[in-house]
Amino acid sequence: MAVLTLTFHIISIIAGTGLQTYFKVPLGADFLAFYTGGVFYLNDTLETIYDLAYLHSGFGQAPEIYFPNQLDFQQQLIGPDLLAHSPFVNPPFAALIYVPFSWLDYVPAYIAWTIFNLLALFIASQIIKSELTWFKNLPSYKVYLGCFLFFPTIACFLYSQATPIVLVLYCLCYRNLRNGNEFSAGFFLGMLAFKPQLAIGLAFVLLIKWRWRSLLGGITSVSLILGYSYLFMPDEMQAFLKISPSLTDFIRSTYYPTWGISSFFGFSVLLFDSLNPAISNILTATLTLGTLSLLLRLWKNTKWLENKTQWDIAMAMTFSWGILISPHLFYYDLMLLLLPISIVVQRIHYIYSKNNQIILWIIVLYISTYLGSQISVAQLEIMKLIKLPEISFQIITPVILYWGYLLYKVVMSPSGTLAETPAKCLPKHET
């Protein structure tokens, strides 16, 4: 899978022209947006990056949203034949992450960004290795390369995304929570302020369990970030807040690859938006509230770190379902599932003793994250060909939801809430 995908990607770059691949995708894909944000910050024009414009594509069709200043800059950088720009829509303080790379010319910056992300992923894998005993006897390179057996990891590097940074923060938060360092855990979670939607699930759990030290840590880091932003970037923050309500319309636009969004929002939009967007919104809200309700019930019945096996499995479920709440969760962001998958592997003997379907559904999870988005595209094309409303049943979200539900049932089973894992279910060194 990795060799075929990467070989195909390299061929598309070689066969492309200038800084675009054969398929007219800019070199570095989404890194172009990050680079744009960094350059606008260095040029002291970051406020203008959020200027919106509307393209009227035809009678009876909703106008398309785009960012003219970004499009002009990216066409100058990549080439005038760049049609679909890659907009920077993160909060302005996120540009600070990309400034060191924006000092460089585009191609060296792209290479440096790739190396940085490879290093970040290695750090995340080593945090997992050091914390979970199942991985401790494995060489570091095997734990690291094992991450690439999961397709979203490969996709993350094909799109040059920032997900490895989020994964490191997830791993640091999990390790610190597991070891009772709650203020530090919350502080790392708060650093997700540049992608706050990815912190909702875990923050909700910390709130209902009233882990006040974690909440204080999160408030501290968020306050530092926002305090800096409003002190040194007041105009930029106002501009971002002004356009924020329009961002959901942006990812619903016809030229946006909605087929790749693997969240409750993406699932609902693909299924019902062409019929009635109101139905999509209702389904998204229903799935979100239902998930939060189950998380509430789960953690009301799970004592904090009293039974570490139960706590680990509950955390794996929380991370898995928490990301589905995020409106924008492209399939490369599913790389974040590496952490809950690792936790499940750590507790696989116990989980398997309660539900022997778990390994089958890990396999289904791996396959669905590899093929799911392409299946969505195929459905849309077929519906378009036969001139029916373009709807698609996106399989990734239901698979993740059901996989998490299997973990939910294990934790909620009567025997799962009474005692620690039996010794026979654990490796000798952990017993």
From TrEMBL:
<feature type="transmembrane region" description="Helical">
    <location>
        <begin position="110"/>
        <end position="128"/>
    </location>
</feature>
<keyword id="KW-1133">Transmembrane helix</keyword>
<dbReference type="GO" id="GO:0016758">
    <property type="term" value="F:hexosyltransferase activity"/>
</dbReference>
<dbReference type="GO" id="GO:0005886">
    <property type="term" value="C:plasma membrane"/>
</dbReference>
<protein>
    <recommendedName>
        <fullName>DUF2029 domain-containing protein</fullName>
    </recommendedName>
</protein>
<feature type="transmembrane region" description="Helical">
    <location>
        <begin position="254"/>
        <end position="272"/>
    </location>
</feature>
<dbReference type="InterPro" id="IPR018584">
    <property type="entry name" value="GT87"/>
</dbReference>
<comment type="similarity">
    <text>Belongs to the glycosyltransferase 87 family.</text>
</comment>
<dbReference type="Pfam" id="PF09594">
    <property type="entry name" value="GT87"/>
</dbReference>
<keyword id="KW-1003">Cell membrane</keyword>
<feature type="transmembrane region" description="Helical">
    <location>
        <begin position="148"/>
        <end position="173"/>
    </location>
</feature>
<feature type="transmembrane region" description="Helical">
    <location>
        <begin position="185"/>
        <end position="208"/>
    </location>
</feature>
<keyword id="KW-0812">Transmembrane</keyword>
<keyword id="KW-0472">Membrane</keyword>
<feature type="transmembrane region" description="Helical">
    <location>
        <begin position="359"/>
        <end position="379"/>
    </location>
</feature>
<feature type="transmembrane region" description="Helical">
    <location>
        <begin position="214"/>
        <end position="233"/>
    </location>
</feature>
<feature type="transmembrane region" description="Helical">
    <location>
        <begin position="391"/>
        <end position="408"/>
    </location>
</feature>
<feature type="transmembrane region" description="Helical">
    <location>
        <begin position="278"/>
        <end position="299"/>
    </location>
</feature>
<keyword id="KW-0808">Transferase</keyword>
